[in-house]
Structures are given as structure tokens and as C-alpha cells.
Amino acid sequence: MTGDDPLDEGTAPQADGGERAASEPHTDGGVAGADDVTLDPWGSSTVSDYRKLFEEFGIEEFDEILADVPNPHYLMRRGVIFGHRDYRPVAEAMQEGEPFAALSGFMPTGDPHIGHKLVFDEIIWHQRQGGDAYALIADLEAHSARGLSWDEIDEHARNYLLSLLALGFDPEEGTLYRQSENREVQDLAFELGIEANFSELGAIYGFDGETDVSHMQSVVTQMADILYPQLEEPKPTVIPVGPDQDPHVRLARDLAARMRFFKVTKAYASFELTDDERALVARAYDAREEYAEDPEMPRCEGAATWLEAERATADGLPADDVTLESTVEKLENGGKEPLRPRTRFFDRQATDEAFEALIDAVEGEKRVYESHVDAFDLEVAEAEELARRLEVEHGGYGFLPPSSIYHRFMTGLTGGKMSSSIPASHISLLDDPEEGYDKVKSATTGGRETAAEQREKGGRADECPVYELYAYLLAGDDDEFAKRVYDECVGGERLCGDCKEQAAQLMREFLEDHQEKRAEVEELLEAADVTLESPRR
Ligand code: TRP
Ligand code: SF4
Questions:
Q1: Paired sense of beta strands 101-106 and 132-137, if any
Q2: What is the pLDDT of residues 452-492, one digit of tens each?
Q3: How much is the pTM?
Q4: Among the four given CATH numbers 3.20.20.140, 3.40.50.80, 3.30.70.120, 3.40.50.620, the one describing domain 37-260+400-410
Q5: CA distance 329 to 313
Q6: Which ligand sits closest to the CA of 500?
Q7: Ligand 2, from 494, 498, 500: best to mutate by most atoms within 8 Å of Cβ?
Q8: What is the residue range of the motif 'HIGH' region (predicted)?
Q9: Domain boundaries, the chain
Q10: Are 137 and 222 in contact (CB under 8 A)?
């Protein structure tokens, strides 16, 4: 049901604040200028300006909810995790000891590196906070979108999983799987595929007539991955990823809503309104004293006249002309019908029994229409809960829209972006510790031309890949240490030679330690419930 239903997020820009309409991230399409932000799951993602992600794509700033997160991870405290979508329900579940989940996926295209470690750490942290933790190997995606052979995939998958376990993932508590081996994910992907069509995938991902079908299938598979933790019961779920995955997150949020039996909204009269129209009617309702003979019973036609008049005033109304016109028209057609706030259950794709059961379950004054029920004594939040409960009782999924958190991309050690195709630019978790040491020693820095200049002006820690290594990894949980490096650098007390020597030693130690742990968790991995060798060839 993705047609002209005004309540469908897929067509009408609304639920997430109308952000889809303004600037859809066309991913494969368009060559982005140096300063553009592209969010491309399969391209080379660079983000030169994180502010644009907030402004253009509606990603929220993580700082704003940091205070509500119990024992935030150092990546959160240091702003490495800089953004989120709807993380609040996850934070609340954590605070209240209620169920929540964290899931992320890895395309096994090469060796796991220190960028993947960020995501491993995020999953593990949520697991330790009491969440159900999931890590999956996106082997179908790697095979279809990147053309990797099953042999290569097996080898890489094993390496990702070993590093994940070595960093502390508990495979007995958590869930590991490969896309290709998870029948439930495949089935869910098929169901979700019914709610998405080719034009939509084209608009989001820049797919065209040349895109192969399996690549598209890997998209619905990822949608199923993201919703998989909620298959047994709906729960807040966070997807920790880089911002290049945001198009996937948004589509998953849309699909989650489209699968729902009911959509709960506020309403003011018997007819349907889009979110934008509803905002206008809410304004008119609030201004009822100005036009209604009886402010207890403002009428649609009065609201229409008021809106028309408001539109002519200097400050105007927060809506475009088209919205204004359609709203006024609907109100005019409403004529003498009273405007009266209510909570509406819109029947999106409920079974008949579920709809009947809902009608019975609504308490207080209610009015039943062909495809919606209006409740006059129910708040929206209570109504949401009721709708979800009945949906689940009648065999629906009741999905909550999945949440996400986004981490910054690391700068490459050679400057520019960190890329797995440039070995010197990144550190693989499998690098020989001495090689790791050397890479850090030869990294570019934010230092000055001469030591004298550095003492005088201080270094540019904010532009220094070596400082990033401290903040993202080497300082671990020790905020004071990270801050000391920063302060000493910008204060001119720290010189790059020594600073790199210290970082290089820490990197060597980290790699030694990590690789030792990888060896130790071999058995744990063998015992884990995940296929290490694909039967596919
Ligand atoms: N597309 C992701 C990547 O390119 C991998 C992935 C598959 C994933 N399924 C997922 C990530 C679910 C997060 C959640 O790395
Ligand atoms: Fe970077 Fe350290 Fe040099 Fe500062 S002192 S610019 S942090 S290498």
C-alpha cells in the first residue's frame, strides 16, 4: 500500500519532518563537489561538513541527548559519535532496564580495520548495557554489490568475527549470523520488499535499469537485518553505523511504519489530513476564539475563513501555498462540522479481526468510520501503545521505527580519507604490530613547520590524524589522557616527534594485545552459532 494514501510516509513527506522531500540523498548519482555531502552506501563516502548532515538530512546532534545516556561510551563523550536518529527510546529503555537491541552489519570485503573497531565497540557497549546485541556478516551484499567470491567472503568473515569476539562481544548472549544463512531474515526481506518498489529504490540509491536484481535484493535484506531484532517482539533498536548508511536507516524507518496495522495521529474532524495540513488546522483550532461564535464548538468553515485571512497577514503561516489551499478546501468542504481534537487510529493494513478488536478496546467516547476510529478520550501515546499491543496480538509485527547512531569517519594516516585500498592510510587489526608502529610513525600530523613554530603557535590537534588515533582508540576510556594530549598539543608543549612515538608504541601494544586475544577466542568462535564456511560456491 504505497499509493496515494495521505498517511503513508512513503509518498507524503511527513513523519520524519518532511526531510525526504527537500534533498533526497542521491547516492550513485551526481558527482559531488568537494564540499558536498554525499551519503552513499556503496560509494566512497567523505563528509567534509558534518553540520550539513543535520541541516540537509535531519540527523540529530548526539550531544543533545548525551546527558540522558547512562554511562556513555567514550566515543559518545568525545563526539566521535556525533549524530543519531531517534536514539531517545533506546536511551530510555537503558535507563529503565527495559528490553532494547543493537545491531550492525559488516560487509566482508577486506580485513577488519580500526574503523570497524568503532562499530564493534559500539555493539559491545550496548550489549554490556543490557541490550540484545547482533552482528551480522553482509555476505549477500558483498557478493552482489561488490562481486566477492564465497571463498573470499568466508576468509574475511572469520576475521571480522574474531576481532569482534576479541574486543569483548559475548556470543552466548548475543546473536551472530550471515545474511545468506538466516532464513528468517530472508523471509522478512521478502515481506518488506512488498512495501518498496523500484522507483523508490531508484530515488534513494540512484539505481537504474542497469542495476542488477540481486543488488536490490541485498537492500531489502539489509532492511530485514535492521528489523530482525524486533521479530519476536517490538523493542527500541539502535543501528550503529557510519553516516553513509543513513539512507538505509531512513528506508527501514519508513518500511517499519508501512508494515504497521494502524497509524495513530491526531485529528480534528472526520476527514483526513496530511501532517502539514494538520499543523495548519491545529493553528486554526488554537485561534478558535477569534472566529467561532461558540468557542466550545468552532466549525470547519470558520477555520477556513480564518486561515484565508491569516494568509494575507504579514507574518503569514508556516506552510506553502499548495498546503494552504488544500487545507482550506478540506475545511470548506467540512462546512458546519465542528472542529474537535481527537486521536485517530487509521486502519493501514489491519486484519478485520484486529480492526474489530481495536474498536472494542477503545475506551471512552469514540466514533467508528470505514477505515478509521476516532477516540475522544485517549492521548496519542496511550493510543500508540494500544495499537501496537493489538497488532502484535493479532499476528502483526508492531515494529518500532529503528534508531541509529553515527560515528565520524577517521582521517587517513596519510591525510585524506581512510581507505582500505590505501594500506598506509589505515591500520588493519591484522597488521603486524611493528607495521602498525611504522604506519603511525610515518603519519601526517597537524604539526607546524618547525619545532619553534610549534612551541609558539601550538599544533593543530583538530586536524591531526595522530590526535584522532588517541581520541578514537589509543586513549581508551581515559578522558584525561586524551584531553592532556590535546591541551599539550594546542598549547605548544607537545612536539610531533614524541607524540607520534608515544602513539606508535601504544598502537603496537594495542595490536599485540588484540591479536593475542584473537588467538584466544578461536574456540569461542568455533562454538558460536554461526556458519563459518558457506555451502555456496
Ligand atoms: N550495508 C552495510 C555496509 O556496507 C552492511 C550491512 C548489512 C548493515 N546489513 C546491515 C549495516 C544492517 C547495518 C545494519 O557495511
Ligand atoms: Fe598531532 Fe601530536 Fe603533532 Fe599535535 S603534537 S599535531 S597531536 S602529532
A1: parallel
A2: 999 999 999 999 999 999 999 999 999 999 999 999 999 99
A3: 0.88
A4: 3.40.50.620
A5: 19
A6: 2
A7: 494
A8: 108-116
A9: 37-260+400-410, 262-393, 423-525
A10: no
